[in-house]
Write a structure and sequence with these properties.
Keywords: Membrane, Transmembrane, Transmembrane helix. This protein is an alpha/beta fold. 20% of the residues lie in helices and 33% in strands. The chain is elongated and about 155 Å long.
């Protein structure tokens, strides 16, 4: 029962004051001067005032509101270590049982750390979950919060949280845990291919551990060295980036006995390899209509350093002009093809023929250059079929096809072969999807016999037009037409000459993205995506090994000719090994070196400051005690409801605040000066005054 007195005046307050103020003044004057009948007049005035004020006795029926208590349960991956999950489940069950005894608490259980987003799974953000639990609760109704966690919380405030209620933390794990981990201190995002890259790392032990440990260094899954590192000190590391594109540098240490986990015994750095400017030597045999097509293309590529020579004055041209009067530059054959040939990534012979400009022995050097890993491109014209063809020199051992001596002068549309539709150099060329192709015609094809390698384009009468071949460790390409300039000049709408020529050049220089057989994998969010380039019709499924060592397979589906894709949703963050046939690839799913795994030793330190600032407490669940032991050996404190001004924690108990807030359900009204009772009192007062005045 909640009784209260309220006034519901019969007239407005201003009018009531205007009427009563003069009367009260007269009554007080009469009392002051002790006039006869002043007391009866004052009593009558009070009765009149009470009648006009209309006092009402209110009896309110209220329902007390509950205090909201949030139980935040840490379900992050670090909670899967050891007995932490079991301790968490037992503690949660015990808390729910104890809180269920108190009807004044509205308990909300919130689980954090199980988000599907990779970014949210790599950090334990319990205070964000706590804020969401209290978002619809007024501050006066917040009773407190209990966190069940290993203490590795990454969004803990440095001071007082944003709510005025006790915060209690129950820590899983035990205070005897030990763990050794490794991390990169400095890892650049980019590195030059083939050049040493400076990095630093640190091995960290528990409780200021000293000593040294072996560190295995692997690049793209291949171990390159074993370093000796001093625990606790920053150590230098030098690695060589093997190729362009994504490279994975991994550091690994052996786990020590009784270590919590070996998940953080590896550290990953993703480094994008960048090639230094590629050096290309372009030798044009003579001026011709398409001579500048290759030059313009290579000069427009910022990653290419081009050296271009055109043979304008062959040795047989003897017209008697004195040497000192010639303005032409002598062709530095020895410097280019003997002394510095290894410095070039690609040599292009554009309609070149043997005219004794190069000694015959130099063709042997070029063939040897290709055999040892160099790249050679022959852009053939009619001279390739003639008597002075370079196919009649020692270079023939490096060429993919010998000329028949035939030059076919016939209009045709360059078309992709069946292999060409799958080959990365020609696959998906702009305009190739229609018949005839959506590009201009050419009018000349050089005949060859017994072509080797792969014919990816065909010309007139289905003759080979573009051959790609491997010789030893190097590569050779042969374009059996000199009509590509028609596309560059826009004849009949032109064609994709830039796209095609650039792909040919980069395939010859071993660009990874243009490899016929290539397996790549990449992590996007918590999805592992696999891409397989192949010239076969079916590469089969991909085999995957997860960071924890589990094996699984993923079916690869054909996305386009020569490209097969597969994907799988993962639950672990870390380094995945993907295999298909003889190819292997590595992929890292989730953020690299995520905070969730950098430090997994349970701790009370991170939550101590915010808990003590709210009057709460931090205590471990796994500790010996005679009070509150559950079946699993977990010790739970007692739960005690406390007032807002009382203490909220003790040695073996935690306090949660109760609220004074309530909700009004019904109101009973009893007028005190209404009806016959009010009328009788008013008449009695007035009659007494009249009677006294009459005497």
């Amino acid at each position: 029962m909640n009784l209260s007195l309220a006034f519901e005046p019969l007239i407005s307050w201003p009018l009531l004051g205007l009427v009563l103020a003069p009367l009260l003044l007269l009554a007080f004057v009469g009392l002051w001067f002790r006039q006869r009948g002043a007391v009866f007049r004052f009593a009558a005035l009070l009765a009149l005032t009470a009648a006009l004020l209309n006092p009402v006795l209110l009896d309110e029926e209220r329902e007390a509101l509950k205090s909201v208590v949030a139980v935040v349960v840490d379900r992050s991956q670090s909670q899967d270590i050891g007995e932490r999950t079991k301790q968490t489940d037992e503690a949660l069950a015990g808390l729910q049982q104890r809180l269920g005894r108190f009807k004044q608490f509205d308990v909300r259980v919130v689980e954090a750390g199980k988000s599907e987003a990779a970014e949210e799974r790599t950090e334990t953000r319990l205070f964000g979950a706590l804020e969401s639990a209290f978002r619809d609760v007024p501050p006066s109704r917040i009773g407190g919060a209990i966190m069940i966690t290993d203490g590795e919380v990454h969004d803990a405030p440095g001071g007082t949280p944003d709510f005025n209620a006790p915060l209690h933390a129950l820590i899983t794990g035990n205070d005897q845990e030990k763990d050794r981990r490794i991390r990169f201190e400095n890892a650049p995002r980019f590195g030059l291919v083939g050049k040493p890259l400076e990095m630093t790392y640190r091995v960290i032990g528990t409780n200021n551990e000293a000593g040294s440990v072996d560190v295995r260094v692997s690049v793209n899954g291949e171990q390159v060295s074993v370093e000796r590192a001093t625990i606790g000190q920053a150590m230098p590391l030098q690695v060589t980036i093997p190729g362009a594109g994504r490279n994975i540098v991994e550091l690994a240490i052996e786990p020590e006995p009784d270590e919590l986990t070996d998940t953080n015994n590896r550290a990953i750095a993703l480094i994008d390899g960048i090639r230094e400017n590629l050096r290309v030597l372009l030798v044009s045999g003579e001026p011709h209509a398409g001579e500048r097509t290759w030059r313009n293309l290579l000069k427009s590529d910022a990653s290419v350093d081009l050296v271009h020579f055109t043979i304008l004055r062959p040795p047989e041209k003897q017209d008697g002009t004195p040497i000192n009067e010639l303005s032409l530059i002598a062709f530095p054959t020895r410097e280019l093809f003997v002394e510095k040939i290894k410095d070039f990534d690609l040599i292009i012979f554009d309609r070149y023929q043997h005219r004794d400009v190069l000694p015959v022995l130099y063709y042997d050097y070029i063939a040897e250059y290709v055999e040892k890993g160099g790249a050679l491109l022959i852009a053939a014209g009619p001279e390739y079929a003639g008597e002075s063809s370079i196919a009649r020199t020692p270079l023939m051992s490096a060429l993919p096809a010998m000329p028949t001596g035939e030059v076919v002068e016939k209009a045709f549309y360059p078309r992709l072969t069946e292999l060409g539709q799958r080959h990365p150099v020609t696959r998906g060329l702009d305009g190739s999807a229609t018949e005839p192709p959506h590009w201009s015609r050419w009018f000349r094809t050089i005949g060859v016999e017994n072509p080797g390698g792969e014919a990816v384009m065909k010309g007139a009468d289905n003759r080979p037009l573009l051959l790609l071949d491997r010789k030893g460790e190097g590569r050779v390409g042969m374009f059996l037409s000199d009509q590509g300039w028609l596309w560059a000049r826009g004849f009949e709408g032109g064609g994709p000459h830039v796209q095609l020529y650039r792909r040919i050049a980069h395939w010859l220089m071993k660009e990874p993205e243009l490899e016929e057989e290539r397996l790549t994998a990449d992590g996007r969010g918590m999805m592992l995506e696999i891409r397989r380039q192949t010239m076969s019709d079916d590469p089969g499924p991909a085999q995957i090994i997860t960071p924890s060592g589990k094996a699984m397979t993923v079916k690869l589906e054909r996305a386009e000719p020569g490209v097969f894709l597969g994907s799988i949703e993962t639950s672990e963050i870390g380094l995945y090994q993907v295999g298909n046939g003889d190819l292997k690839a590595l992929a890292h799913v989730g953020p690299v070196n995520a905070p969730e795994f950098t430090d997994v030793v349970s701790t009370e330190n991170r939550l101590r400051a915010p808990a003590e600032a709210t009057g709460g407490s931090v205590r471990r669940l796994a500790q010996s005690s005679t009070l509150g032991n559950l079946a699993g050996g977990v010790t739970l404190p007692s739960v005690v409801p406390v007032r807002s001004t009382g203490a909220a924690a003790g040695n073996d108990w935690i306090g949660l605040r109760t609220t004074d807030d309530s909700v009004l359900k019904a109101v009973s009204r009893v007028p005190l000066f209404g009806g016959f009772l009010g009328l009788g009192l008013l008449l009695l007062a007035l009659g007494s005054m009249w009677y006294r005045e009459g005497r």
